[in-house]
Amino acid sequence: MKRDFLSKVSHDLKTPLASMQETTRLLLDEVPGPLTETQARLLRLNHEGGQRLSAMISKILDLSAMESGTLGVEIGHHDAAALVQQAVAVTSSVAADRSVRITTEIADPAPRLACDGDLVIQVLVNLLENAVKFSPEGGTVRLAARTVAERPAEVPEEHWNDVVAGEDPAPAVLMSVVDEGPGVPEDEADAIFDRFYQTSAGRRVQGRGVGLGLCICREIVDAHGGAIWVRPNPRGGSVFSVLLPRALPLRRAPVEATSFS
Fold first, then answer.
1. Nearest-CA neighbor of 244 among 108, 62, 111?
2. Contact present, 244 and 221 (Cβ < 8 Å)
3. Which of 162, 86, 158 is nearest to 128 (CA)?
């Protein structure tokens, strides 16, 4: 009942919110007439707040679809480098606003994935946005991707066994997002993937979200038969890692397609 309520209310909020944002945009474009500097600044604040609220509503709707079993997963063959580039392009403006640099390290040849490309991009975007949000101004976020045929030291054995199974296992793809933020306390490393959970550091971040991004990441990764976890960055900050099989059947069968905004 709670999921149904959240889904319906969130959906009904999107239409009036979109109208409000469009009105604000028209005012910022000075269609009705010129603005003073103070008026423009206040309208920009209003528009940014609307964008954050819209993102929160979209995440609630995404999670509702996933939990109800209506997550549509369309498997295809994708180049990991292309997925990484698209995710970086989506988050580049957010990074620029905080003067945070995003670098990429893609193995040569680039890994290829049997996955839903749009959903994997959504995972990478969520991880990059979090990394940028928690990184200090002027910091660097690194996104890396490579094929692994044997378990690397940084991959916990239980995750490796869950993802790479069978007598003749195929190589997996390991993607990592490294930030220079405050890090995640060891006793919260699992809880941060729960719905609405936020660390004490996260609650102090300006413009913080509703605490659903990492939960959505876990749902998507689980649907691909993969694993996601966080570990400390030896140089300070956190390393979020995603291990995906290159070609494994889905753990959860899709029911119907769901679009993501």
1. 111
2. yes
3. 86
pLDDT tens string 101-160: 999 999 888 888 888 898 899 899 999 999 998 899 999 999 999 999 888 999 999 999
User: In this structure, are residues 95 and 101 in contact, taking their beta carbons and an 8 Å threshold?
Assistant: yes
Q: Could you tell me if 64 and 3 are in contact, meaning their C-beta atoms sit under 8 angstroms apart?
A: yes
What is the 3 state secondary structure string of the chain? CHHHHHHHHHHHHHHHHHHHHHHHHHHHCCCCCCCCHHHHHHHHHHHHHHHHHHHHHHHHHHHHHHHCCCCCCCCEEEEHHHHHHHHHHHHHHHHHHCCCEEEEEECCCCCEEEECHHHHHHHHHHHHHHHHHHCCCCCEEEEEEEEECCCCCCCCHHHHHHHCCCCCCCCEEEEEEECCCCCCCHHHCCHHHCCCCCCHHHHCCCCCCCCCHHHHHHHHHHHCCCEEEEEECCCCCEEEEEEEECCCCCCCCCCCCCCCC
d(CA 122, CA 185): 25
- Please state, in angstroms and rounded to a whole number, the distance separating the CA atoms of residues 11 and 3: 12
Longest dimension (CA), the chain: 70
Q: pTM for the full model? A: 0.71
Q: Give the sign of the dihedral formed by CA 108, CA 148, CA 213, CA 115.
A: positive
Q: How many CB atoms sit inside 10 A of residue 214's CB?
A: 24
Q: Cα 172–178–181 angle (5° rounding)?
A: 150
- Tell me how far apart the alpha carbons of residues 72 and 61 are, in angstroms, rounded to a whole number: 13
Strands 140-148 and 101-106: parallel
